[in-house]
């Protein structure tokens, strides 16, 4: 099975990618030397598909388990859910020798990871991602967070998982919209580190007509592992985002997060706003960083092949999106740190983007691509 190792000193861990890995979860967890009670955190949709299999795999390896189910969707990434979950963990008898297993998409991973980072001042957790978004991006790297009304991911922590177990076969039950939005982060990885991958993503989009068949899934582990490796190398270089390297993973996210927070959380999926944010960032990259129109088109055509949004949906007020963008974490000392591309695979960070530039980019998003 492809295994990607994140080398982060005492916080190093493996990401195993294998069709069927879910049924080997107990064994893999055991090999990572975790002991104690396994508290499985999942959502109302994922529990129906994979809850029992995860529980069984852990119990067969000798773990006691409990199941903690939150509502499916972005609205569960909240401080209120953290409090409910933490109370449930206490009630279930999860003590400091226990650990959390985050079984689900990026919402469950971010929420469960954040809870693990503060519960009893920190317990270990394992990521078992079940969406493309979570398998190629959110389960790796240790960023955990919840949203608050002021903005996306504004309350969070860095807490690396002890282990990540990726089973691409779990993607067979994903709705097409969730597949598409997850692949936006693959496009991001391609844009910042691996331009050739744009062709593979387009081929996959055409071949599957956006629903994964079993024969496609057979080929997914390599593509997923390639994305994880891109992210792993960036995280190893700049784990806590202090060196202007990890911020590259935020390509398309600054305006994206503003747009995401401009409507009730969950109305637009994360990958959808990253698609919009990437169109805006490509425009600003052409204007300020010398990105060629041809390179820009390469990325845009991939987003189009995935049928991801490139125009602001009706009902999104650009002024609200701008206001929410101005509270993004990338603002420091009143200046926005914006990720641009000088060329495909060559991201840079600019401090020169002004509010007028952001307004111009939002105006662009109201015109057809
Ligand atoms: N921490 C990070 O580095 C990082 C990176 C990228 C995204 N994120 C966060 O991830 C979140 C988005 O994650 P997401 O796109 O996975 O959304 P999600 O977790 O809400 O999952 C999308 C939907 O798919 C359902 N689902 C999950 N797995 C399924 C399966 N196998 N079969 C059927 N249905 C399934 C879920 O119940 C949900 O309704 C956002 O909050 C975003 O901010 C975090
Ligand atoms: O891991 C990272 O670093 C990323 O930026 C990955 C992003 O895809 C992800 O959406 C992340 O949660 C955004 O981080 P934030 O610090 O902007 O909240
Ligand atoms: Zn993201």
TrEMBL record:
Residues 69-180 form the 3-dehydroquinate synthase N-terminal domain. NAD(+) binds at residues 106-110, 130-131, 143, 152, 170-173. Keywords: Amino-acid biosynthesis, Aromatic amino acid biosynthesis, Cobalt, Cytoplasm, Lyase, Metal-binding, NAD, Nucleotide-binding, Zinc. Its main location: cytoplasm. Zn(2+) binds at residues 185, 253, 270. One of its GO terms (molecular function) is 3-dehydroquinate synthase activity. Binds 1 divalent metal cation per subunit. Can use either Co(2+) or Zn(2+). SUPFAM superfamilies: Dehydroquinate synthase-like (SSF56796). Pathway: Metabolic intermediate biosynthesis; chorismate biosynthesis; chorismate from D-erythrose 4-phosphate and phosphoenolpyruvate: step 2/7. It catalyses: 7-phospho-2-dehydro-3-deoxy-D-arabino-heptonate = 3-dehydroquinate + phosphate. It is found in: Cytoplasm. Its cofactor is NAD(+); Co(2+); Zn(2+). The keyword Amino-acid biosynthesis applies. Its EC number is 4.2.3.4. It comes from the Bacteria. Residues 182-330 form the 3-dehydroquinate synthase C-terminal domain. InterPro entries: Dehydroquinate_synthase, DHQ_synth_AroB, DHQ_synth_fam, DHQS/DOIS_N, DHQS_C. Pfam families: DHQ_synthase, DHQS_C. GO terms for biological process: amino acid biosynthetic process; aromatic amino acid family biosynthetic process; chorismate biosynthetic process. GO terms for cellular component: cytoplasm. PANTHER family: 3-DEHYDROQUINATE SYNTHASE, 3-DEHYDROQUINATE SYNTHASE, CHLOROPLASTIC. Belongs to the sugar phosphate cyclases superfamily. Dehydroquinate synthase family. Catalyzes the conversion of 3-deoxy-D-arabino-heptulosonate 7-phosphate (DAHP) to dehydroquinate (DHQ). This is 3-dehydroquinate synthase. It comes from Akkermansia glycaniphila. The gene is aroB.
């Amino acid at each position: 099975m492809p295994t990607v190792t994140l080398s982060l000193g005492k916080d190093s861990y493996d990401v195993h990618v294998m069709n069927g890995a879910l049924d080997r979860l107990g064994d893999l967890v055991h090999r990572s030397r975790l002991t104690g009670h396994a508290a499985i955190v999942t959502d109302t949709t994922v529990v129906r598909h994979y809850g029992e299999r995860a529980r069984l795999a852990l119990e067969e390896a000798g773990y006691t388990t409990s199941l903690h189910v939150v509502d499916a969707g972005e609205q569960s990434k909240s401080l209120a859910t953290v409090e409910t979950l933490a109370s449930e963990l206490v009630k279930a008898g999860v003590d400091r020798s226990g650990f959390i297993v985050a079984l689900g998409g990026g919402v469950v991973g971010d929420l469960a990871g954040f809870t693990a980072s503060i519960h009893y001042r920190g317990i270990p957790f394992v990521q078992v991602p079940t969406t493309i978004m979570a398998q190629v991006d959110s389960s790796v790297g240790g960023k955990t967070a919840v949203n608050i009304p002021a903005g996306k991911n504004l309350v969070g922590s860095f807490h690396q998982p002890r282990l990540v177990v990726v089973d691409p076969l779990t993607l067979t039950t994903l709705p097409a919209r969730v597949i598409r939005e997850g692949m936006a982060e693959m496009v991001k990885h391609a844009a910042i580190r691996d331009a050739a991958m744009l062709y593979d993503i387009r081929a996959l989009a055409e071949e599957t007509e956006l629903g994964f068949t079993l024969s496609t899934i057979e080929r997914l582990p390599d593509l997923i592992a390639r994305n994880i490796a891109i992210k792993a190398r960036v995280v190893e270089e700049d784990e806590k985002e202090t060196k202007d390297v990890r911020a590259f993973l935020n390509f398309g996210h600054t305006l994206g997060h503003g747009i995401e927070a401009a409507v009730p959380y969950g109305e637009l999926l994360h990958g959808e706003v990253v698609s919009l944010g990437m169109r805006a960032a490509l425009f600003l990259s052409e204007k300020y960083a010398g990105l060629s129109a041809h390179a820009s088109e390469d990325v845009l055509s991939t987003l189009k092949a995935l049928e991801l949004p490139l125009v602001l949906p009706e009902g999104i007020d650009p002024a609200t999106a701008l206001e929410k963008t101005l509270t993004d974490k990338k603002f420091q000392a009143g200046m926005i740190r914006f990720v641009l591309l000088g060329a495909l695979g060559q991201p840079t960070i600019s401090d020169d983007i002004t509010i007028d530039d952001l307004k111009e980019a939002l105006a662009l998003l109201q015109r057809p691509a």
